[in-house]
Predict the structure of Maltose/galactoside acetyltransferase domain-containing protein.
Amino acid sequence: MLAGQWFCGIDAELSIDKQRAHKLIAELAKIDVTDFQARLELLKKLFGSVQSCHIELPFTCDYGYNIHMGDRVFLNYDCLLLDVGEIRFGNSILVGPGVHMYTVNHPTDVERRRQALTIGKPIVIEDDVWIGGRSVILPGVTIGRGAVVGAGSVVTKDVPAYCLYAASPTTSKMPSEKEKMANGEWFLSIDPELTNDRIQARQLVAQYEKLGPYDADATLVLTKLLGSMGDCCSIELPFRCDYGYNIHLGSMVFMNFGCVLLDVAEIRIGDRVLLGPNVQLYTATHPIDPETRNVFTRGRGIVIEDNVWIGGNAIIQPGVRIGTGSIVAAGSVVTKDVPPMTIYGGNPARLIRRITIDSDRHQHQHHPHSHL
């Protein structure tokens, strides 16, 4: 790796090095932001070399020891430095929020890429450079002294000294993390825009909790929180969601106490749907690989069609559709689609029986207190 040759990215020694870097960053988060000396001492452990710098959190890097900081380097919120190759900063450098620097590259050949082969090409940021927010610096790039990189630029080649580099308005821009989330792609959940969206959702949920579900203004709060909502919906407290705007409710939807809707992707609930206590709807999934699991998230939508009843403590996994008129038994874990007019239960949930209207009405008349 250090010699700039192809190497295996899942090597055990390198995995340990990554874990070390992540632990040091976690320690950095615990230090008071005004304790500049303590922060600098920790950064000296993390980076290959550093004179003086200030890093706003969150911050992410691969190894740390391939990063070399000059004097008076400032990195704003949510910067990501993939330091498979060296990243060298000069003096008096400003790096805006959400800037990504990628020294890493992979083979174009699929078979070699499956072997986790990786190579690094260094990035050099010379003195007095300003890099605007959400810019991406690609492998092998040198940004010359005194240059300015406009916000949102993707830098694929060297930037000469004392020049302004900006993406053309006609150039296709990199999708935001929010756009990636909406498209069902892998995205960074620590993205500042998404973090702000989650904070706003929690604030609206707090308002709803303060009012209570039966207050006249509670419905107004829900219409601000949710993507859409039909008539006569009721959500008991407590209630939790990630963003809210990915949740779409039909009419006469009832959620009992303690429901959790992780709406990284859309959750669409039809009309006359009953959700028992502590029902969990999970659209979010993460990579299997431990190194990327803490960083990336992807969503797969959940659809609950009309006249569905989901029993208490049931869990609905990403990508599941529950068909019209079906019932999910209490405590079930639903990992695949549930056909219409069926009863599913168990872990993982399996078909218990099909629902036939005449026989079930007859059963209800003889067993009026029966329930799942």
